[in-house]
Amino acid sequence: MKAALYARVSTGSQDPEPQLAALKEYVQRRGWDLAGEYVDVGSGRNGSRPNLIRLQQDAFRHDFDVVVVWKFDRFARSVSHLLRALEKFKTLRIEFVSMTEQLDTGTPTGKMILTVLGGVAELELDIRRERVSLGMAAAKAQGKGVCRPLKAVNEEKIRRDYQTLHSLGKVAALNNCSTWLVSQIVRGTRSHQN
């Protein structure tokens, strides 16, 4: 089996080498070949993680058979993020190992834990929906609006960009807005009411 290692540290003053050394030793003990190392520096929640993106792209090319991480929180921002990544790996027939949590999705126990994580992610989503609903109900009771404020965008620039690029996705990325908003502006159907 070919293994990809993923490590992340939160700041530039931290050293990812202890994580990588432990991961390499684990891969060697399992008799796997090292296919690559992917290391990001920055917050898992807010920071850019270009090497995680590169790892996911390499997964689609089947450059490795298993992803090995030191700990869940080095890899994923939340349980739901972890679960989405694991489901993607599962469809690609790529296993996932977290050394600290002793999760190996290639084992029956690992598959059972994955099922439990799915339940936790669903609970997390339900709790979030409930909080939003309660907040909206409280706002309505106080006579406040519950709509999202309109995003301030330069509609003329978006129209010009679309004439040049002919791509909703590219124009949305260029203007830091959704493709839905771009399509509304291009079609002239965007409502300017709250």
What does this structure look like?
The protein is of the alpha/beta class. The protein has 2 domains: 2-115, Rossmann fold, CATH 3.40.50; 155-187. Helix content is 54%, strand content 14%. It has 8 helices and 5 strands, in the order βαβαβααββαααα. The protein has helices at residues 17-30, 50-60, 72-75, 79-91, 108-141, 155-165, 168-175, 179-187, and strands at residues 2-9, 33-41, 66-69, 95-98, 103-104. Strands 2-1-3-4-5 form a 5-stranded mixed β-sheet, with helices on both faces. Strand 1 (2-9), helix 1 and strand 2 (33-41) form a beta-alpha-beta unit. Helix 6 crosses helix 7 (168-175). It is globular and about 60 Å long.
What's the short story on this structure?
The chain has helices spanning 17-30, 50-60, 72-75, 79-91, 108-141, 155-165, 168-175, 179-187, and strands at residues 2-9, 33-41, 66-69, 95-98, 103-104. It has 194 residues and is of the alpha/beta class.
What is the secondary structure topology, with strand pairs?
Elements: E1 2-9, H1 17-30, E2 33-41, H2 50-60, E3 66-69, H3 72-75, H4 79-91, E4 95-98, E5 103-104, H5 108-141, H6 155-165, H7 168-175, H8 179-187
Parallel strand pairs: 1-2, 1-3, 3-4
Antiparallel strand pairs: 4-5
